[in-house]
Amino acid sequence: MFIVYIPHVYIRGGYNKWNSVVTYLPFTLFPSPVPKAALLQALAVQTHFNTLVDKISQDPDFLGEALDRTIQADDFTAKLFGIYKTVQQEGRTQSIVMGLIRSDYMVDQREDGTPSLRQIEINTIAAGGFGVSDQLPVVHRHMLKSVGLLEESKRIQDQSRTREMTAALAKAWELYGQQRQQLCLFLSRNIPVIRRKFDDVSRKGSLDGDKRLFIDGVEVAVVYYRYGYMPDNYTEQSWDARLLMERSLAVKCPDISTHLAGTKKIQQVLAKPGVLEKFFPEQPEVMEQIRATFAGLYTLDMGPEGDQTVAKALTSPEKFVLKPQREGGGNNYFGEDIVQVLQAVKGDKRRAAYILMDRIQPRTEQNILLRKDLPLKLTSVCCEIGVLGAYVRHGGEMVLNEVTGHILRTKSIKNNDAGIIGGVTVFDNPLII
């Protein structure tokens, strides 16, 4: 048995794909100040978000009702939901569920000057950042020491704990082996992992009579998706491959219901009064911690409530962000772009493909962004905190639910949207203040 990894392949525009190009990941020269209370709040609530995502993934009625208008307006979400319905109708084959998720936040600077943590989004598929930034604390400690800031260097914490993240994959692999009633000698360093594209799965993947997944003739225990979160990730053969894997006995990270639980529409619905109570009926303190991170979120479904949302967005577009059901950065609309989009769709169901969110007014700091081909200069920047979480459930038992670290990504305040791959955001470290 092995773990199959569906990778993201990225070639930066302007490079000859046949040439080998090695460069550093973009990062800041110094760590950026982050309020201690905000970081601790984000870390403290992560296991509750892990639980919430898992509960949503187990509730077909909630998913169906919440996404009903969205799948009529957005083809990509409809395709994902079609796979979900097929799997539900056939009967779910796997009782082992795992998630590696990242919840993203910014510190909103209120008019009275007090900071407030606000969630940007929650990523349930291909939640990147762990591993790649593990060495950055070492760099930033060195930089602070080199300019005589010894005490400040002690406030740089390690970021993502890659061992804990991979332990979740290993736990799912172990449980799969036990479920298959095979002798499973658990040595995490010896778990075989292969990288395969959707096309490889389409050509060489198959299910046996028990719905065990085989690729190249070898049984797959766990599928980890680092790809598949954007429409252009898929061809028709890719959709067939995704369905094949979702129908299989292999543990998926994420499975299709967990993928849907991370959509922008679900984020907006969760902010409605009374919705969190459905998932935490006797845990008011948990609901309070989760709800305290929500920004203002508004529906654009057809109807009076959606009409009100359109009206206030057109009146004051600078106060909002218009979000489609997309991941990966560079998809959101700001300012006059909001007006153009809503003017085009305000009278028909296409507007249900979007949600509206209050625009956060972030803290600004000064830093130097180190990015290829970018001149070194002091820049006004803002930061986004990402908190990483991992969970594994076996049947009704949550066997692992952990916070596995945090990352900080920073961009110039001149840039609206974010994204490491898009060349806007760079890796950073919080300097706790």
From TrEMBL:
Gene Ontology cellular component annotations, sorted alphabetically: cytosol
InterPro entries: Glutathione_synthase, Glutathione_synthase_a-hlx, Glutathione_synthase_C_euk, Glutathione_synthase_N_euk, GSH-S_sub-bd_sf, GSH_synth_subst-bd, PreATP-grasp_dom_sf
UniProt keyword Ligase, yes or no: yes
UniProt binding sites for Mg(2+): 121, 123, 327
Binding-site list for ATP: 121, 264, 323-332, 357-360, 384, 411, 417
Pathway assignment: Sulfur metabolism; glutathione biosynthesis; glutathione from L-cysteine and L-glutamate: step 2/2
Enzyme Commission number(s) from the entry: 6.3.2.3
Domain Glutathione synthase substrate-binding: 179-261
Domain of life: Eukaryota
Required cofactor names: Mg(2+)
Keywords: ATP-binding, Glutathione biosynthesis, Ligase, Magnesium, Metal-binding, Nucleotide-binding
Pfam families, per the entry: GSH_synth_ATP, GSH_synthase
UniProt xrefs under PANTHER family: GLUTATHIONE SYNTHETASE
Entry's family note: Belongs to the eukaryotic GSH synthase family.
Protein name: Glutathione synthetase
Organism annotation: Mastacembelus armatus
